[in-house]
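Give me structure tokens for this 314-residue protein.
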Amino acid sequence: MTWRFEPGEPLAAAFARVAAEEIEIVRKKLRRRGRDPGAAIHAARQSFKRIRALLRLARPTLGEDFSAENRRYRDAGRLLAGSREAIVLAETFDKMAADCSETLSPKDAGLLRAHCIAEVHANGKADIDRRVAQVLAVVDEGEARLSELHWPADSKELFQGLRASQTHLRSWYDKAVGTNSAGALHEWRKRVKDQSAQLRLLRELMPLAYRRMRDQEAKVAELLGLEHDLWMLKRALGAAKVPRKTVPARDALAQEIRTQRHALREQALNSGRKFSSVSPKDFARDLTVSCLGGTGTKLRRPRSKPQRKMRASR
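Here you go.
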């Protein structure tokens, strides 16, 4: 099976199974990282993000266990973050240098790249085998806890998780629009990615309107991811001690980064307005009824009759 809930499966069992499958993906990727450790680490970190999205969907029923389990997989992902950050930073720099090829000379680009990425790259390579061993120990502990957790088991508990997911997403969207702060935008991005992953779990069970919503969320998450990569590059450029003669080139590159980030933010906020304003109650009710029926505990195939359109709360 893959990252999805299956028709006929008890809800609580579906949560535990999907978490266990993601843990196994982490093990396989890290133990067989071979000649491409970067790809293996990226895959492992994506699994940790999916597990955390699963935990957030179950948060109302997990209760006090949520914080400990979320922290477990957050910290495991952070142990692997340095290596992946260096790769993303290099790829983002190379794309920006190509975009600015008319104003950024190859020599300046080479000097800026070396000073910008060298420290991050060195930190990312340090002790990778030790970090992988730590992560594998963490996932073993996490797997042992799966059967002890109180996963959502019925319609009421799934409804609570879905409503909380949409409430948080909408709240951070409003803050991102209202304050235009990088922090609010980043939090909205995380909630969009969480909910996109959560809807992928339900893709075999949910109404057509919500499948389209999931597709739109995935597109917005990609835009926000590009914006975040540029933010990382801007931060690295600002922190790097570059040669004095390359300062004008660095400043010009930083200005282009600001321009592109602004365009990506505007596109993401405009594209995300509709799904970020859907009523949390309607969102949760529609998906719960589609996936479980009124008071069910087993997942069911989607109804064949047409679904009503999603309603925005304002």
